[in-house]
Amino acid sequence: MRRFITLIILIATCLGQSDALAQFDKISVQAGISVYPDPNSAPNVYIEFPFSVHRNQFTFLPNDSGSGGLLAGIFAEIFLTDTLGKPVDSSNTYFLTAAKDSIDAQNESVSLFNKLSLVPPPGVYSGKLTVMDAIGKKEGSFLYDRLVIEPVVLDRLHLSTLEFAHKISVVENSSDAADSRLVKNGRYVVPNPMGIISENDTSMYIYAELYNLSFDGSPDDSFTLGYKILNNDGSLYHEFAEFVQSKPGSSSVISNILDIAGMKPGRYTLRLVARDLKSRNADSTSRQFVVFPLSGELPQFVKYVEKNPYDTAGLETRVNLVKFLLAPQQLATLSTLNDSGKMRFIEQFFRDQDPDPSTEKNEFLDDVYGRYLYANGNFSSTPRLNDGWKSDRGRILMQYGRWNDREEIPMPSFSKPLEKWTYYSIQGGVVFIFEDERGFGDYRLVHSTASGEVFSPAWDELLKENMPTLQQ
Length: 472
Fold this sequence. Notes:
It is built from eight helices and 27 strands. It is globular, with a radius of gyration of 26 Å. The chain has two domains: 4-307, Immunoglobulins (Immunoglobulin-like); 314-470, no CATH class. It has helices at residues 102-105, 309-312, 315-322, 328-335, 339-353, 363-379, 392-400, 457-466; strands spanning 4-10, 30-31, 34-36, 46-54, 61-62, 70-82, 87-99, 111-118, 123-133, 139-149, 158-159, 163-170, 183-184, 187-191, 196-198, 203-211, 222-230, 236-239, 243-246, 252-259, 266-276, 282-292, 301-306, 405-409, 418-423, 430-436, 443-448. The strands form five sheets. Strands 1, 15, 17, 18, 19, 21, 22 and 23 form an eight-stranded mixed β-sheet that branches. Strands 11, 12, 13, 14, 16 and 20 form a six-stranded antiparallel β-sheet that branches. Strands 5, 6, 7, 9 and 10 form a five-stranded antiparallel β-sheet that branches.
């Protein structure tokens, strides 16, 4: 699996100061995202949202603790929503920053760094990270238009996304670091959220994590890391000598410093390939970065966009996406086409379903792909098969969309564990009842009030008598 993270740079007008405390009309937020699909978090995925702001954008007041100086308060929050705009998860933090005096508070060269984290299930999301001046009440936001979070991989070597940093150092205790909030896995990582590097920088700091190593504890058990820098057109700019690291266990932290002295301004891609020398398995991940000229200004706003996974999906995946959406006649037509014809047919289907063709985003495709990822991440018979989309629950999810209500009944007195899904806007309101017949999480559709679906008079009567909450 290749993972690409793309940064689209939008240069905005610098916001002016409104008073002697260097207040701004709007806070400029630089932010990014790093995805760490640690198997220990499965089926959910651990995600970090690193961000930075300029300290002089905040309002300072005298420190009333008696120690002198000035203090400013900063509130930051991340909201995650699904493709329908429904809230999924959120996280926030509050922290203080100090300045010696009003002159120091206006120092434009001082940046503040922090991060927020969430552990959502796989899916397609949008996000909004907001930073607020707790005293001046100004705020700024960073929008994540499209976040495709894939299921955690459990059966093969797997890399996290690459994280760029301004500095990485090893620390024994988090208290030894300048800011304990930026310590993870024994490293003090000052994030470079957008991968923006100055022309006079000579080093690039890299952080990543590697999972599912084949580990036997022998002294010579190791893996290799290969880094390549690609030009914007995909051609090779530079290839670094291979790094060899010993395996600390089945997973490993990766932190390296790459020599980038003399790089010309422009947009580049860093590609990392990890290879397990024992199993011979390999995985790769890529991330864009920008080298800006000394004569230029740091862009004030960066918009995050992740490459649409549909663009690189194979024919099998594309057919899976539409299998339960096409009418019988359309399926028959699809089956008569060659591979290129099938690709064009499916592309046209999603194009026809786009609710707003005037925009680049196809909300219908986003929603379908999100259902597909969710079904494979939650309903698969085994993680490696990714066959949850064709299970009974997966089929209903793909065909009818996300439920309005979902109720889990662990162990009713008269049956195996049940799930009830309710849709209010379909056929005037319908329900689907799934039963875990064998007790191993293999839920089967046993009853529904939807037209054309399985209807069981026995189940209908049984539910009316014993579990009225399962009725509409």
